[in-house]
């Protein structure tokens, strides 16, 4: 991406437009304009996504790798966690499975949809791509451990019945999740930062372009948060309309959660796709796997605090079908990313698993 001396007007107007639409929704503009306002909301959502990707690139280029990918992953996840916690507090005990459904959807979208599309797009353009094996292996090991501990093990503990932990178990798992994610961030940014650095190609203009001025980077950081906040809240505003459309076509309500998770992850997905197309697969995988880890490592402790404070029983365990797909995804990701080289074969396998996940959600 070529960085100019000033931010383009559209990148500033997009988040403003998103927040104006949200204000209009609160004021009742949706009731007056009906479907036309829904179209405006969708336009504002995708405008916010594109602006978020642009500003994330600015910030990433300023701070360098792997900090740039970490900034986007943490920003998206923090806003996602805030949304989930607010919905849980507002919805009461009936929403205690919301975090599980959202986190599982995010992991499947990232581990199969995002990773598969990036590998396929990059390999389709460049034939074969390489990446640092040590960093990806560390991310996959952490993701496998934290996924099973938070979404599979609750089904097999005996202190409490059902897919939930007891109070002491939930507190312990929340701490374990933070320890695993915190250690990964420490390894990624301090102890073994070189494991996550992409190999700079001699002809890559993005790598060798001068970084943006500090003032522009700070403005972009603020606008990035504004864009992500607008995207998440617009997705929330559109969810009733989306749910009605899903019910109208006879699909399960679980599809709504998948679509919303996909929309929230769009900024990271587009950034990862662009990096893979530019032959920077390491950056692409940093974004994808880092997002999955942040989604679990920050969401589970946050909702655990809500559960412990309110006394609600938090449902974390996924069903048997979801467990099979999760374990299959982890095994395939470990094998396909275990050589440091990727081709269209690996990308196709991941996308097929993602297609099976979507199909079995609609036709369980």
TrEMBL record:
Decide whether keyword Transmembrane is in the record. Answer: yes
State where the protein is found. Membrane
Where is the Sodium/calcium exchanger membrane region domain positioned along the sequence? 36-189, 220-362
What keywords is this UniProt entry annotated with?
Membrane, Transmembrane, Transmembrane helix
InterPro entries, sorted: Alkaline_pH_Ca-Antiporter (IPR052946), NaCa_Exmemb (IPR004837)
Specify whether Transport is a keyword of the entry: no
What is a single cellular component term in the Gene Ontology annotation?
plasma membrane
Which parts of the chain span the membrane according to its record?
38-58, 70-91, 103-124, 131-153, 165-187, 217-238, 244-266, 287-314, 320-337, 344-363
Q: How does it sit in the membrane?
A: Multi-pass membrane protein
Looking up Pfam families in the UniProt record yields: Na_Ca_ex (PF01699)
**GO MF annotations in UniProt:** potassium:proton antiporter activity; sodium:proton antiporter activity
* Protein name as catalogued: Ionic transporter y4hA
Taxonomic source organism: Massilia polaris
